[in-house]
Amino acid sequence: MRQPGAYSKLLSGGVSGKTGPHSLPLARIKKIMKKSSEDVKMISGEAPIVFSKACELFVEELTKRAWLITLQGKRRTMQKDDVASAVITTDIFDFLVNLVVEDRNNSTAAVAANKLG
């Protein structure tokens, strides 16, 4: 008899202790997966579920790190700069650094333009 796979708890909602619908819309995840490459034609039903869980874990980890920066600033409201700082100071988020730095530069330019005009 076949043993349950590594992802069987994900499919039943057992890993996070939740049951029922997933936090992120699976149809949207599937659409993003298909748009990622012209070669992606067929996606199994389990793949978006695994991606959904991975997205949840990613957001959770980034939020925890940004929250620590918020607390260091002696604030109770997380701000965009807290998230940006978490990205910049955490090696595992290096793939986002260009996005965050570019966004900070655009924000600075917009503030400067508003002051001039």
UniProtKB/TrEMBL annotation:
Residues 23-87 form the Transcription factor CBF/NF-Y/archaeal histone domain. CDD domains: HFD_NFYC-like (cd22908). One of its GO terms (biological process) is regulation of transcription by RNA polymerase II. Stimulates the transcription of various genes by recognizing and binding to a CCAAT motif in promoters. One of its GO terms (molecular function) is DNA binding. It is found in: Nucleus. InterPro entries: CBFA_NFYB_domain (IPR003958), Histone-fold (IPR009072), Transcr_DNA_Rep_Reg (IPR050568). It comes from Erythranthe guttata (Yellow monkey flower). Its main location: nucleus. The keyword Nucleus applies. Heterotrimeric transcription factor composed of three components, NF-YA, NF-YB and NF-YC. NF-YB and NF-YC must interact and dimerize for NF-YA association and DNA binding. SUPFAM superfamilies: Histone-fold (SSF47113). Belongs to the NFYC/HAP5 subunit family. Keywords: DNA-binding, Nucleus, Transcription, Transcription regulation. GO terms for cellular component: nucleus. This is Transcription factor CBF/NF-Y/archaeal histone domain-containing protein.
